[in-house]
Design goal:
- This protein is α/β, with parallel strands linked by helices and 242 residues long.
- It is built from seven helices and eleven strands.
- Pfam families: NTP_transferase.
- Residues 12-238 form the Nucleotidyl transferase domain.
- This is Nucleotidyltransferase family protein.
Length: 242
């Protein structure tokens, strides 16, 4: 980016409407982003809002659905580091539809914006991702993570001899990390109902208007999908002294 006057995004959407069925019983009485990471005393959404504020975001729109009132009540009483607006899907719109619906409440519709899934626990420099997005003149940029495979791997030679056992190796593939930078014009490309990853991203990829930003080496990233993920996140945070 050229010069300090070029603005980084200062607004974001958080998708927080999923039911989190694989996290039951934690999600029996709260939406998935309201589940606390053990030992932190703060729900996932609280960590996300702090991270976004640290990265220069001043306004967040949270797209709610399942047990929205629980999240809204927490927001009403929490000391928040930025301005938060909530929108509630009265019927499931899908991730792309949810993004479009929430983006309609962004305070600056003519400016770029970040988005993140509400079950992501991560820390990396969002401004660097925004610069990457700008340099490639992309309509959308998605963060790419290389997660560790949850099983041990077996390495063999061409003849079939076992050479080594590797515990939880990194995946050979990059995956969508659930964090995005979008241009202002991207909102109009989103479906009213449906999944942007199936309906919008493939078209942008064919037109070379979709960029992928690999997370920096050593950046922390974890999707909180199961109870094991909560336990592992707590261990990792404790090891990092957070």
């Amino acid at each position: 980016m050229t010069g300090a006057q070029h603005s980084y995004p200062t607004q974001a959407v958080v998708l927080a409407g999923g039911q989190g069925s694989r996290l039951r019983p934690y999600t029996d009485d709260r939406p998935k982003p309201m589940v606390e990471i053990p030992g932190t005393g703060t729900p996932i959404i609280g960590h996300q809002l702090n991270w976004l504020a640290d990265e220069g975001v001043t306004d967040v729109v949270i797209s709610c659905g399942h047990l929205a009132e629980v999240l809204q009540e927490w927001l009403d009483h929490a000391q928040l580091p930025l301005r938060v607006t909530t929108v509630v899907e009265t019927e499931p719109l899908g991730r792309g539809g949810g993004l479009k619906y929430a983006a309609g409440s962004l305070p600056r519709p003519d400016e770029p914006w970040y988005a993140t899934n509400g079950d992501i626990w991560t820390r990396f420099p969002l401004r660097e991702m925004a610069a990457f997005h700008h340099e490639r003149d992309a309509e959308a940029t998605l963060a790419l993570a290389r997660p560790r495979i949850p099983w041990g791997a077996v390495e063999t030679d061409a003849f079939g001899h076992v050479l080594d056992f590797i515990e939880a190796p990194p995946s050979p593939y990059l995956i969508n990390a659930g964090v995005y930078v979008f241009s202002a014009a991207f909102t109009d490309l989103l479906p009213v109902r449906g999944d942007h990853e199936r309906m919008t991203f493939p078209r942008l990829a064919r037109e070379r208007r979709l960029a992928g930003y690999p997370l920096p080496h050593g950046a922390y990233w974890r999707a909180i999908d199961t109870a094991k993920d909560l336990t592992e996140a707590a261990k990792e945070l404790s090891a990092q002294g957070r």
